[in-house]
Amino acid sequence: MKAIQFKEVGGPDVMKLVEVATPEVRPGMVRMRVHAAGINFADTFFREGNYLIKPKLPDTPGMEAAGVIDAVGAGVEGLAPGMRIAAVGLRAYAEYALFHANQVIPLPDFVSFEEGAAFPIQTLTAWFMIHTAHHLTPGQTVLVHSAAGGVGIVAMQIAKAAGARVIGTVSSDSKFAIARQYGADEVINYETHDFAEEAKRLTGGKGVNLILDAVGKPTFDKGIACAAPFGHVILYGRAGGPPDKLDVFRLFEKSVKVSGFVLYTASANHDLMREGTAQSFALMKAGQLKLLIGQSFPLAEAPAAHRFIQSRGSVGKLVLIP
Ligand SMILES: NC(=O)c1ccc[n+]([C@@H]2O[C@H](COP(=O)([O-])OP(=O)(O)OC[C@H]3O[C@@H](n4cnc5c(N)ncnc54)[C@H](OP(=O)(O)O)[C@@H]3O)[C@@H](O)[C@H]2O)c1
Question: Would you state the CATH architecture of domain 122-264?
């Protein structure tokens, strides 16, 4: 089969399209014929050797995909060849990939393979932050950084569906229209404006109740500054670099809560996964959550796709089509 592989960590061009053996299905796992592999910003960290999970060289990136089951390992129940699924795992930039049965999400008919590839990581991360790490209530104000990105576009819609007022930040005015179309009531260009001052102005000085921050160094501290009393800042990434060390006494000033989020803690809990998946699909079916596929790339163009997501020019979800 064809797969993307890198033999050394580094920039996008370390990734090459190669011919490798199709993986044999193993007990407890299924093999997927991949129709679309999701690109995540974290894949760029993985390729650089800077992610939580380190590559075992030569390795293949890709943490999620959607496609059809073509083989089922011993001991797997309730899954069969021919089923349309999405899944979280490893080595998904390939024509075939193995996934643990407990990380498989059967796809409803109304969800395309591209949307399926946009679902497990970005959609569930947004849903769990808003409804599990935080308990968003109608009338709260949510500030979503990188609002036009993969997680951002989904998070704004999920927050909106829960009755929130949504403020999105983007790094260029060209993303304003997309951010508004996908749920932002207000949009701030945080490259040209001080987003904390703008957020305070837009909330009449009250501040925001929830801040979803995967940018890190340039935004984290200012987020605390524009949080409302009892506000909550969730740090779930570091696209702009790791934030400076937090002086916890700063949290006293307005009884602010800071927390971290990583999807693995939620995906390890099957009841939570079932709930987040069902609720997110229900929002999609109701038309309240639309997954924007910003661009599809042929598998061989994985380097171009990585350059694009790192350029800050992409919107929505990027997918690879093997
Ligand atoms: N903790 C978790 O479980 C989890 C799960 C999924 C994603 N994440 C994190 O969530 C973030 C978004 O992930 P995604 O896959 O949906 O990517 P994405 O938002 O589609 O793309 C990354 C975005 O980050 C923004 N950004 C800010 N500073 C940047 C910088 N210095 N260099 C490049 N981009 C920068 C850019 O938007 P603007 O320039 O408009 O701000 C860019 O479009 C990432 O940080 C990712 O690691 C975490």
Answer: 3-Layer(aba) Sandwich (3.40)
3-state secondary structure of 322: coil
Asked if residues 47 and 14 have their Cβ atoms less than 8 Å apart, the reply is yes
Q: Is ligand 1 within 6 A of the CB of residue 129?
A: no
Q: Read off the amino acid at residue 178.
A: I
- Among candidates 218, 216, 198, which has minimal Cα distance to 207? 198
Protein residue with its CA nearest to atom 2 in ligand 1: 262
Residue whose CA lies nearest to ligand 1 atom number 41: 146
Q: Give the CATH architecture of domain 2-118+291-321.
A: Alpha-Beta Complex (3.90)
Distance 239 CA to ligand 1 centre (A): 5
Ligand 1 in reach of 120 Cβ (< 6 A): no
Domain boundaries, the chain: 2-118+291-321, 122-264
CA of 111 to the centre of ligand 1 (A): 24
In a structure prediction context, what are the per-residue pLDDT tens digits for the chain, which is 322 residues long? 999 999 999 999 999 999 999 999 999 999 999 999 999 999 999 999 999 999 999 999 999 999 999 999 999 999 999 999 999 999 999 999 999 999 999 999 999 999 999 999 999 999 999 999 999 999 999 999 999 999 999 999 999 999 999 999 999 999 999 999 999 999 999 999 999 999 999 999 999 999 999 999 999 999 999 999 999 999 999 999 999 999 999 999 999 999 999 999 999 999 999 999 999 999 999 999 999 999 999 999 999 999 999 999 999 999 999 9
Q: Whose CA is nearest to atom 37 of ligand 1?
A: 146
Sort 68 into a burial class: Cβ within 10 Å, 0-12 / 13-18 / 19+: middle
